[in-house]
Amino acid sequence: MTDRIEILAPAGNMENLVAAVYSGANAVYLGVQSFNARASAANFTFRQLKEAVEFCHGRNVKVNVTLNTILYDRELEEFAETARQVALCGVDAVIVQDLAAAKIIKSIAPDLPLHASTQMAVHSLAGALLLKEMGYSRVILARELTLEQVKYITENCGIETEIFVHGALCMSLSGQCYASAFLGGRSGNRGRCAGTCRLPMSASGRKDEYHLSLKDMCAMDMLTQIEKIGVKCVKIEGRLRTPEYVAAAVDSAVKALDRQPYDLQLLQDVFSRSGFTNGFLQGRLDKNVFGVRTARDSRKTKQALPKLRELYRRERQSVPVDFSFEMGRQKNLLRITDGSFNFEKEIDALPQPADKDFKGRLCAALAKLGGTPFYMRNADCRIIDGMYIPLPEVNKAKKELARKLLEARENVNDYRLQDYTLPEFSKRKSAPQLIARFENVLQRPTEKLDRFSYVIFPLEQARQISDRLKDKAVLEMSRDIFGREDRLKQQAENAKSLGFNRFCVGNIGHIPLVEGCEIFSSFTLNISNSLAALEYKKLGVDVMTVSPEITLEQAGRITSDVKTAVIGYGHLPLMMVKACPVHNVHTCAGCDGKGYLTDRLGKKFPLLCHGKIGGYREIFNPVPLYIGDKKADISADYITLNFTLESRGKAGEIIDRFLSGQPFGEEFTRGLYYKASI
């Protein structure tokens, strides 16, 4: 196998897999019938998966399986059996998001490599280093990183890194998008994203504008740079795309890495949203990163398809083999080897006088390996001077040997498997206490905070917190760690010197930065089952907010061996975005960091900017979640009231309403608490 960077291609079905392999991919990623982040793709049965692994291994191609959705308690047994079957199919790695999935896989097949899905939103060195400690062999980094940030993590994390280089870009940081779930009941974290960001959404208030739709990325021109900084694998997005798309992207990547020209226009024609962008890798996030799929784009795709099919009509010869031929007076012997397997065949043909150079014609015949993945690297031909045997007999033997070699290579990894029994989860019996979380210190209605066990404020505002609140204060770390982890760690150290020792984390990369402190978690860790909660407890998380994508009944099933919190009120952030949609209308100059996006129905979605240049933005649900009149249905240690957009007075009113159990009295939502997203 080559030590060069891997080209990893999507395979939503067998036709796409073949197109990827024939076009020159070094690896493919695919899903089985459940627990993968592209539930609407055709995906593979276990029988098809084993056949796919055999097909790929015969051609020096790896197979990575996506099991990267969040899990529910009732699914853990089924997931364990799925993991066992995937391991039995001998795949090369499994991609996961949920820590429960990682725990189960490592318990059943400890030698099966584990890759951290981009759904884990890892975008810091601290996050990658923690994954290494946890036994992951690769981290698929967030798509929003710049090339310099990728370089820094790659050179220092000690495990393999993988990045996306072509295909669709999510508007939100992967794993941090709740728009599809809360607006349409289809969870991206469950593999059923409805593509909410592709719908009309305007930053100007006008209709028919698509200010959440990003262009597809295309970093083919940057592949040699990416290889140079040590990235192990470059990934092409597109398990829902066509085989022509897969073949075009793989072929372009192969050529780009070999510093050969590729057809960028053809690559754009097969699929684009009015062009491509490298805005994230290059650190240029302006209005040019946005784009939509037009009728003209669709026409170009239709015109390009016939030409693209030629890219995968024939198998690419990518596996080197050596031949040796020995002519004898009574028999002849032909051997083939790929360096691991060796086969030989006797050719019953008596040598005859030759009138031409037989050795040259023999070597040329052996080199003709069309229809196989093999190409001849060397041929050692020992013949009797002036003699030859019929080439049809040689070709017949060559084909038989090539067939045997391919069959021998079509094997699967044989992992040792262990029995695994899920732990017993303790039932929950607790009367919830209250936590208040404020977007800024000025929102706090101080006179009402004695009703709360803890109060969460931004870490950046630690010096503004009064001594009176210090004993119950929890400092929330910025969700944006991009290139800022040293600064975040220093902020935490400064806060500790002021007497604070509780921190709220929203990303797995935060945890090492506040090791040894009392740690609370935001819902953005996507904790949806008891086993994941126990795994986060091992990492040092003391109080964890469960995912609002699960029902209150499911939240109540989370084991009492951990302390949980449920969001009781708040405008939930539907997206965490790096590319600002307001750039479609104006620049940062004169912007106060607040705004609205208007959807096709006229609903206004609040937007908050956290640090204009290089920061991040959050897009909030227009109506708040409220369950103050349903507190009897909550089984958790804490209920959190999240205040983001509210004034100090409004926050006080809502606290009173919640504490007294009154109906909300305004437009609100129960979220998914009584009907989980699919």
Q: What topology does this entry show?
A:
Blueprint: E1 6-10, H1 14-23, E2 27-31, H2 46-57, E3 62-67, H3 76-88, E4 93-96, H4 99-108, E5 114-116, H5 125-133, E6 138-140, H6 147-157, E7 160-167, H7 179-184, E8 201-202, E9 216-218, H8 223-228, E10 233-236, H9 243-257, H10 264-270, E11 276-277, H11 279-282, H12 295-309, E12 319-327, E13 332-337, E14 342-347, E15 352-353, H13 358-367, E16 374-382, E17 387-388, H14 391-409, E18 433-438, E19 454-458, H15 467-470, E20 473-476, H16 485-497, E21 502-505, E22 518-521, H17 530-538, E23 541-545, H18 552-557, E24 563-570, E25 573-577, E26 594-599, E27 604-610, E28 616-620, E29 625-626, E30 638-643, H19 648-659
Parallel strand pairs: 1-2, 1-10, 2-3, 3-4, 4-5, 5-6, 6-7, 7-10, 9-11, 12-16, 18-19, 18-30, 19-20, 20-21, 21-22, 22-23, 23-24, 24-30
Antiparallel strand pairs: 7-9, 8-26, 12-13, 13-14, 15-17, 24-29, 25-28, 26-27, 27-28
Helix pairs in contact: 1-9, 3-4, 4-17, 5-6, 9-10, 10-12, 13-14
Mean pLDDT: 95
Domain count: 3
How many DSSP E strands? 30
Overall morphology: elongated
What does this entry look like structurally?
The protein folds into 3 domains: 6-169 and 214-312, Alpha-Beta Barrel (TIM Barrel); 319-409, no CATH class; 433-659, Alpha-Beta Barrel (TIM Barrel), CATH 3.20.20. It has an 8-stranded parallel barrel with strand order 1-2-3-4-5-6-7-10, surrounded by 6 helices. Strands 18-19-20-21-22-23-24-30 form an 8-stranded parallel β-barrel. A hairpin with a 4-residue loop joins strand 26 and strand 27 (604-610). The mean pLDDT is 95. It has 678 residues and is of the alpha/beta class.
